[in-house]
UniProtKB/TrEMBL annotation:
UniProt key word Oxidoreductase: yes
PROSITE patterns, per database record: RIESKE
Organism: Streptomyces tateyamensis
Signal peptide interval: none
Protein name, entry field: Bifunctional 3-phenylpropionate/cinnamic acid dioxygenase ferredoxin subunit
Length: 105
């Protein structure tokens, strides 16, 4: 699994998604409740950036239609989205946030 640096931890405001590119994949990185999560930035219901939504209770909400996705699993909490979005492993090294979007083991 190859991890790439996406930002510094100090760049992440609590409960405020940050859109980054990892190997050509748009990813929303979120620092909430002392953890950092990486989730695909595109809502599975519509081609909308999740990083423009709000974060609450370890969920990110799509600003357009209101579906929320669990930051840990990518599963939607309700309609209109029915399909999960991919989540990605995160590593913190010092102040660096690293994310892997590769499917390698």
């Amino acid at each position: 699994m190859s991890f790439l640096r996406v930002c510094s931890l100090s760049e992440l405001a609590e409960d405020t998604p940050k859109r980054v590119q990892v190997d050509g994949v748009a990813v929303s990185v979120v620092h909430t409740d002392g953890e950092v999560y990486a989730i695909n930035d595109t809502c599975s219901h519509a081609n909308v950036s999740l990083s423009e939504g709000e974060v609450e209770d370890c969920r990110i909400e799509c600003w357009l239609h209101g579906s929320s996705f669990d930051l840990r699993t990518g599963k939607p909490s309700g309609l209109p989205a029915t399909k999960p979005v991919p989540v990605y492993p995160v590593k913190i090294e010092g102040d660096d946030v690293l994310v892997s979007v590769s499917q390698e083991s």
